[in-house]
Amino acid sequence: MRIARLLTTATLSLTAAATFVRAQAPAPSAAVRRYITSDAPVTAITHVRVIDGTGAAPREDQTVVITRGRISAMGPSNSTSAPEDAKIIDGTGKSVMPGLVMLHEHLFYPSGQGSIWHEEGGSALRLYLGAGVTTMRTGGSMHPIADLNLKKYIEAGKIPGPKVDVTGPYINGAGMDAPQMPELTTADEGRALVREWADKGATSFKAYMFVSREVLGAAIVEAHTRGLKVTGHLCSVTFREAAALGIDNLEHGLTASTDFAPGKKADTCPLGDGPTAANEALGVEGDSITSLIAELVKRKVAITSTLAVFETLTPGRPPITEATLAAMAPHTREYVMTRRNAVDQMPPASARAKMFAMEMQFERAFVRAGGLLVAGTDPTAYGAAIAGYGDWRQLELLVEAGFSPLEAISIATKNGATYLGRLNQVGTLATGKVADLLLVNGDPAANISDIAKLETVFKDGVAFDSAKLLASAKGLIGM
Ligand SMILES: [Zn+2]
């Protein structure tokens, strides 16, 4: 009787605590609930392989306990018991790993109309979450109001999606003919853009190819004053100049560097193959690029690997996966295949192919030198790399570049969280951390492509059905 009462009291207090925590997060709407397989307050995944994201060797036969959105226990199954009230998931033969933290994502997509981009929105968000991206930074925004509102809807439980770090409008200069990007020419304009969009809720900024040193420098100072970070896909400003101005992150790696472009004029983007040919002549292992890498590492500038989008511009690569093509609207699929076939007509030793190989070599050298390499899909160019499936491809390409599967997983989890300053919450698996984790019916530490065997995505401890989320976007990309 006494034991029964004690148990009841314990259960009641657990339930009360669960109610209290749930009360903080709004109840998910029907549009979100349809993808949720479990929101039990306590879940135990038993006999599972743990890949913790730190790069440590996987641990077999573990039990991971999730209590009200956090990892409350993790250890060998024979010494880690599942709480009595836990929902049990048998993880035999499966793996858990941290949710992906991907830093060059977009909610827009090429429309095929010159250089205009439309907002993809909900379908892209479901692909991201379905592919296990639990945290994403947009690497630039064409529709920042839409991105900010979509983020709010996710947080309000209205639509499914990852945690989103939204970048403001592109910080670009004049003369590029990119009609959706602001054309900033003075330091005041750079500061004003950062102020306005930080006030509206942007938590990151991205500079673009035609920005001047003056505008970029002013924007960086203003963002840093507010504790926010700036990244850039640069061209007019060199990596070395941007690092000296205090930039936090450079997108795309060596491929976007104009540091060694012959006849480079200050604040001017040298278009064409000049910069690539110069990099190629110097060689990644040569003194010039080695010294540039050392400078970036010294100034703590992160590099974002975006091999998945570069692959779509490189001849002789494996075909686009069936799942990726199936996610596209029919007219998009047709357009993408036409463009892809044109790329494949290029000679195998073209500048593009050399650039792709050199970029992989550069990213390895940057990590060897102690640099923070992060990863993203960059679902742009002509649209062949898309949200979610592109993130999986990015992981595979990091392994092709020479990283071990465990290193690739760390780059796409721990490193992203480190850059965002959220490693104390997400990015690796440890007791006390937020339960953003993936249950995979395979072993991505042995074979990185097993990431596609993702079954369940836990976000704040709530279990989402990966296949259902991915299927929901079928035929919608590029609609
Ligand atoms: Zn991008």
Give a structural overview:
With 479 residues, the chain is of the alpha/beta class. The chain has two domains: 30-98 and 429-472, Urease, subunit C, domain 1 (Roll), CATH 2.30.40.10; 100-420, TIM Barrel (Alpha-Beta Barrel). 38% of the residues lie in helices and 19% in strands. It is built from 16 helices and 19 strands. The protein is globular. Residues 1-23 have low confidence and may be disordered. Zinc ion (ZN) binds next to loops.
| Approximate shape | globular
> Which cofactors or ions or other ligands sit in this model?
zinc ion
Work out the count of structural domains: 2
* Span of the ends, CA to CA: 63 Å
Strand-residue proportion: 15-25%
So how many helices? Answer: 16
Question: SS-based structural class?
Answer: alpha/beta
Number of strands: 19
Question: Which percent bin holds the helix content?
Answer: 25-40%
CATH level 3 topology of the largest domain: TIM Barrel
Low-confidence parts? 1-23
